[in-house]
Specification:
The chain has 230 residues and is mainly alpha-helical. Helix content is 49%, strand content 4%. A hairpin with a 4-residue loop joins strand 1 and strand 2. About 2% of the residues have low confidence.
Length: 230
């Protein structure tokens, strides 16, 4: 609701400042709802049940999509729209184009060995330009909500959203000693001040942090065998 009010306010301000609108801005007098920043992520006690439920998921595309989302920390829409031509295999990176990233420049996402193995397995049988194809008109996966709720129900987990997978990687990076700039670089945060710091970072410490957090999550989840992926 607060986002709708912000949008309406911006629209009326634009009309008043640029297009000759002379009326009042009706959104200015509306008091927004109080918000609390969400801090939900998968902790070590929840990961075993989560990974077990994920392993039982029959839809391989959904299973791989959720794992890649968790282990890259990328935004939901970006993972859904991931294309094969965005992946640089020799450098184990995925480049999210600027027009799809929430920034004015391309976003480079490091891919851990586990993610590379998942993608390699999918590539071997893929006939689509999309990594996670779908049956709709977009050609790619769009709305995995039903499958997500099914996975959570099997795992006995509540109040967990797909976006919380992104927060989970960042939280495990922090738990394994990563600095805030490294976490921000991993997740592609937009803060101008943070970006000035991130611009001086190469991907090597980011990759090290992501790999370390991935290892910690898989061990905590009882699926350390995935670490043996080549």
């Amino acid at each position: 609701a607060n986002r709708v009010i912000e949008l309406l306010s911006a629209m009326f301000n634009r009309a008043r400042n640029d297009w000759g609108w002379t009326g009042a801005n009706p959104a200015e007098r509306i008091t927004p709802f109080k918000e609390r920043k969400r801090a939900r992520f998968l902790d070590g006690n929840e990961l075993p049940a989560f990974f077990q439920s994920l392993a039982e998921e029959l839809n391989q595309t959904i299973r791989d999509y959720i794992l890649v989302s968790l282990l890259t920390g990328a935004r939901r829409s970006n993972v859904q729209e991931m294309r094969w031509d965005e992946i640089t295999w020799q450098h184990a990176t995925w480049t999210v184009p600027a027009e799809k990233a929430k920034s004015d420049e391309d976003l480079n996402v490091v891919l851990s060995p586990v993610v590379i193995q998942i993608l390699d397995n999918r590539k071997s049988s893929s006939i689509s330009p999309w990594v996670f194809p779908g049956s709709g008109k977009t050609g790619h996966l769009v709305e995995p909500r039903t499958a997500w709720e099914r996975i959570l129900k099997r795992a006995g987990l509540r109040d967990l959203r797909l976006h919380d997978l992104r927060r989970t990687l960042g939280s495990w990076q922090a738990a394994t000693g990563a600095s805030l700039p490294i976490i921000g670089k991993t997740l592609g945060h937009e803060s101008l001040e943070a970006t000035k710091v991130y611009a001086r970072l190469n991907l090597d410490p980011v990759r090290e942090s992501v790999n370390r957090a991935t290892q910690a999550m898989l061990i905590a989840g009882g699926v350390a065998g995935l670490l043996e992926a080549k």
